[in-house]
Amino acid sequence: MNTLAQGIAEANARLKSLRARCSIEQRDSRLLLRGTFPPKPTAAREDWHRQRIFLKVNATPSGIGFAENEARKISALLDQGLFDWTPYLKQDDQILTLDQWIEKFKAYKLAQGIKQKTWESDYETAFKILENLEPDKAIAAISRITPNTRKRHRHCFVIAALFKFAGVAIDLKPYKGNYSPSTVKRRNIPTDAEIQDCYFKIKGTIWASAYGLLATYGIRPSELTKLDFSEMPVLIVSGTKSALSDRRVYPIYPEWVDLFELQNINLPRTQNTGDQASIQFAKYNIPFTPYDLRHAWAIRSMEFGLDLTIAAQQMGHTVQIHSQTYHKWISDRHHKQAFDRILAKPDRITPPIATSRLVLINGGV
User: What are the two backbone dihedrals, phi and then psi, of residue 85, each rounded to the nearest 5 degrees?
Assistant: First the structure.
């Protein structure tokens, strides 16, 4: 038995153990599912009978994985009486284009429960670098992305998922790099005094309010177009790919709301605020990046003793990401400040009185 046939047999064994209602078959270079299904809408028969579902995926290890997942999904739909032939009706035998595969993959992912915003920001953006579903060309496009970056890591993940869905074998693991939140390059975070001073370099420009919001609330530069100011000085950030619901962010320095004139917001009219903010910071010779203001807010929240869970919620990410990404920037100064605050508490716990001292006080020898 060759490797491919063995893979199909193992997948069918797993399906049988789960009492799935269909199995995987290979026909030429393609995979299909075989089982007892209700009649097709166009069929003359009205009874359930043995039929085949053509998956339009190649007989590859990745294709087997997709077929197995599809068999499980179809079995669950059959059990619930929800199976619908529409997605599986036989199409013309023409080879699907890249755009057609992307549309099919989009429908598949949305049905899985991902949000439209997630599709647009994570998947659609990555697929723009593809010309077709040829592995060599995909690898060449990915190789042009800066190594060991979140962008390359994410592009490898979603492009590999698309190829797997289409039944085209591709191995992008060697190209992902070693990016993770814990390996992000250590930054020189500006002090609060530097942040205040640099505001006056940009005061009076169209980017002044943007700078003030980034500094005061630690939001992402890309979130400048997703803000609600109805509860100021509490800032409301509408749901994003990282936080699907709105979140409220408090200014750790309420005084900055006045200093940065955030009662009268005037933001630039651009949708690409992330890239534009970086360009403007360089234009006005600000010696740090827009994202450094976000990191400064995170560290400031620690210095002020804000609970880790609350800080993570206000920043719009998980506690795990918050810990991995920001705790490594806590310097000795921050540790000393935290320790000094503990020692300064009037009700702090003190050590017990030594037993030998008690004996002397009570007149012992």
Answer: -70, -20
Annotate 279-329 with DSSP letters as a single string: HHHHHTT-SS-HHHHHHHHHHHHHHTT--HHHHHHHHTS-HHHHHHHHGGG
Angle at which helix 273-283 crosses helix 290-303, to 10 degrees, equals 90
Give the helix/strand (H/E) hosting 69: helix 61-80
Could you tell me the two tokens for 7?
A: 């893979």
303-347, pLDDT tens digit by residue? Answer: 787 887 888 889 888 777 776 666 666 555 567 777 787 888 888
Residue whose C-alpha is closest to residue 125's, from 97, 106, 147, 112: 106
* Ordered strands of the 30-37 beta sheet: 22-27, 30-37, 49-58
- For 91-139, the three-class secondary structure string (H helix, E strand, C coil) is CCCCCCCHHHHHHHHHHHHHHHCCCHHHHHHHHHHHHCCCCCCCHHHHH
Which residue has tokens 């990555």? 126
Computed over every residue of the chain, the mean pLDDT equals: 83
**Overall pTM surpassing 0.85 (yes/no):** no
User: Which residue type is seen at 230?
Assistant: S
Please report, rounded to a whole number, the percentage of residues in the chain having pLDDT higher than 70. Answer: 85
